[in-house]
Amino acid sequence: MRCPGHMCTWPDRQAGLGHLDRVTDVLKKIDGDIVSLVEVEDCAVLGPIVDRLKSGYQPYLTKSRDTALGQHLALLTRIDPHRLLFDDSSVFYPIEGSKCLGKYKGSTSLSKHFVAHFQIGNRPITLIAVHLIARPRDRSRCGKREAQAMIVDNLIKEHSRIDGSLIVMGDFNDHDGDLNGTEPLSPLVFDLIKRKHNLTNVASLLPPIDRYTNWWDRNKNCRVDRNELTMIDHVLVSADLSDLIVNVKIGHDLFKASCDTYKRTSDHWPIIVDLKF
């Protein structure tokens, strides 16, 4: 697939640049020091965003192994990482103790992720950005998502420091306490990542009514119905960082949801976390 072009949301260059302008406008309003972007096509897309921002960002992109959609994870940061890593390891599923129904078997890697190491003052910080397999209600994908969570668990054990801080963030494509109380098909994803490593989901600091990051127009009526709102994007932080949080916000006011894929900014709203060191 090539974007803009055939089979792409944006059919031509003008439409594609219009989308970059809308994304850039949101990033200017957020003005984050460290930003993780999901579903980025390539560096040729990331570069114009940085040029438009003029905010001292350095862009980084880890080339994923996503052969279906060609999506990658990107990092915009004013604080340069001293290491940026990608892990090619894979895991067979179903994993031990799987909670998924069905007899689906295979192996998977964590095709879209990066690990970044930062030093802020005397504090080492490990940031693991992830994009797990889509369709959280699809039972045929449940086991693969569990296996990807096991890879994240392994990344945490390998790369986070005992005396350091940890952030795991991104599109988990899974549920952990949204406004509708949606239960995941398997609790193992957050057992392996959040509960095992004693991480706090920053959304737990928000009123339940605000806990949504994604809209899927399930009934195609082009209206935002409450049961179509979910929280599948998450920012998980270690206890020491949780103590430094001064504000958490999901940017519902930054742009309006739209069923017009040609003109919308995104079908996901950003999670914004302010920490005071």
Sum up the overall morphology in one term: globular
Number of H- or I-type helical stretches = 5
The first-level CATH class name: Alpha Beta
Number of domains: 1
First-residue to last-residue Cα separation: 43 Å
Spans of at least 5 consecutive residues with low confidence: none
- CATH fold naming: Deoxyribonuclease I, Chain A
Largest beta-sheet characterization:
6 strands, mixed
CATH homologous superfamily annotation: Endonuclease/exonuclease/phosphatase
Question: How would you describe this structure to a colleague?
Answer:
The chain has 277 residues and is an alpha+beta fold. 22% of the residues lie in helices and 27% in strands. The chain has helices spanning 13-30, 43-53, 139-159, 188-195, 239-242; strands at 34-40, 58-62, 72-77, 83-85, 90-93, 106-109, 113-120, 123-131, 165-171, 200-201, 214-215, 229-230, 233-237, 245-250, 271-275. It has a six-stranded mixed sheet. It has a three-stranded antiparallel sheet with strand order 1-3-2, covered by helices on one side. A two-stranded antiparallel sheet has the order 5-6. Strand 7 (113-120) and strand 8 (123-131) form a beta hairpin. The mean pLDDT is 94.
